Amino acid sequence: MKKFLLLLYLICHVVQAQFPPENPHLVNSPFPAVHNGSYRQGNTSLPAFGPGDTLKVAFAETPKDRVSPWLLYSEPYPNGQYTIWGSTSTHIFKAISTKNEFRVVSDYQIDKNPWINDLSWSFLMLPDHQVLTYDDNHLFLFGEEDISDPKSKIVLLKKMTMPKSIKSLSKLCRLYDGSIAFAARDGLIGVIDAKDFTLKATYQIPLKRGEKAYHNDYAVDDNGNLFISTTHKMISIQWNGKTVVPKWEVSMDFGGNRFQGIGTTPTLLGSGNGDKLVCVVDSQKPARMLSFWRDEIPTDWKGLKDFDKRVAAVTILPGSRPARKFMAAVENSPTAFGYGIACAQYNGFLGQSCDTKKGVYKLEWRPATNTMDLIWYRDDINLNNVLVYSTASNAIYGSGKENDCNYYYYSLDWDTGKTMVRKQLGTDKRFDDPGDANIVGPDRSITYNSKKCLVRIRPE
After folding, report:
1. N or C: lower Cβ tally within 10 Å for the chain?
2. CA distance 348 to 33
3. Which region is the signal sequence (predicted)?
4. Is residue 12 in some structural domain?
5. Pairing of strands 71-73, 83-87
6. How far, in Å, are 132, 276, 310 from residue 293 at the CA level?
């Protein structure tokens, strides 16, 4: 009996250790932040639908076109219900999602011109059903008229003008000490107080002529380190509680341009005493998974030929190629768990053709050999979204278009890549996922943004 309990403890400990340290300042929600956490791993412990489920599809119309890539779940209301928050190029909105109802219940218009800025690709969920978002030089704090009512009206609580030196806000992130970090399109990184939103510190990323630093989001770890990719380099900076200081920088030929960035948001693998990596996919042809030592470089690491010593692995993604001239082959960020990481070929945001580029990849870091190995590769399927991995279902989820011009929703086995679910959605263009997050709800449903509405797939 003692041996069994010891084995059970070890198994539970290993499973728990696969998840990164929990950020205590993220709200209590099924999906509280972009990529579902500060490490930007895009995984969830919640189960989603699986083989044998009868699936029902529903739409919820949003205020305007050009819906952003991100949806987030709120904290629970007193009745146990949640709301889903999102944004368009002009509005912030929230929707309710229950067995009998799926619709947007409130929205608030911020910008009357949808072409001025792409509103809030990384808005921030705060406690008490508050949301922080932005335009070029303002922060907007939203709340609800009645925080006990899921259908309550959205209200603007506060509008804050940023200093004139801060222009073109682009990203928001909650740090592990509770502070809020932001990025601007000119490479300026700042930290603000989460209570009164006063500016604490800024850091200007040194940029060369033509270098861009705003395309991707960024990851943060529990030591205050921020990991940021530009079109020309990978960098790490640290918020030490008082100021932002540079840690390291690696120049790379990512193959990026104004539209591509380098491909993906940095994804962090490993924590505690294990190997610690930051991974991105570049825009080369074929694309490559690039892994960097994000902390101290191991003393016995000899490095890779022709690469900076901080580069831990360069793994080619076979068959990957841009669907269009101005896009990266792998544009959407990976999903990860433990030392496993998966990504997919991208077919763009202008609408998928009936002859999409195919490719889904699962890789794994091997500490014993210091290699990032390709575990499996599917060259017959297209997942056009930001992938999500459910540990409870042990499956990756996403959608794509097949040669019959129908959209399909899939789940793939994490270990083998085998198809577990293949749900035909139809030819309706509302099913087209332009590269957005797919969020798993407490009812095993998955919701994502199309360019015109929300799409929910729910087991009956």
Report:
1. N
2. 24
3. 1-17
4. no
5. antiparallel
6. 32, 6, 5
Contact 85, 144 (CB under 8 A): no
Residue 270: give its domain's CATH number. Answer: 2.130.10.10
| pLDDT interval class at 114 (50, 70, 90) | low
For residue 26, tell me if it sits in a domain.
Answer: no
Evaluate whether residue 202 is within a structural domain.
yes
What is the distance of C-alpha 50 from the center of its chain?
Answer: 22
Residues sharing a CB contact under 8 Å with residue 208, sequence separation 6 or more, in sequence order: 232
Mean pLDDT over 246-251 rounds to 96
Written in H, E and C, the secondary structure of 374-420 is EEEEECCCCCCCECEEECCCCEEEEEEECCCCCEEEEEEECCCCCEE
Interval 86-113: pLDDT, tens: 988 788 999 999 999 999 999 998 865 5
Residue 255 corresponds to which tokens in the numbers above? 């193959």
Report the distance separating Cα 320 and Cα 26, nearest Å.
35
Rounded CA separation 138/160 (Å): 5
3-state secondary structure 299-368: CCCCCCCCCCCCEEEEEECCCCCCCCCCCCCCCCCCEEECCEEEEECCCCCCCCCCCCCCCEEEEEEECC
Q: Of 310, 313, 326, which is closest to residue 251 (Cα–Cα)?
A: 310
Domain of 292 in residue numbering reads as 31-459
Q: Give the model's confidence band at 4: pLDDT under 50 very low, under 70 low, under 90 confident, else very high.
A: very low
pLDDT digits (tens, 9 = 90+) for 391-410: 999 999 999 999 999 999 99
Among residues 105, 39, 97, the alpha carbon closest in space to that of 73 is found at 97
- Structure-token match 């490719």, residue found: 359
- Is 288 within a domain? yes
Radius of gyration of the chain, Cα coordinates, nearest whole angstrom: 21
Give residues with Cβ within 8 angstroms of 325, minimum separation 6: none
343/352 Cα distance (integer angstroms) = 18
Residues 154, 107: contact at Cβ < 8 Å? yes
The counts of H helices and E strands in the chain are 1, 33
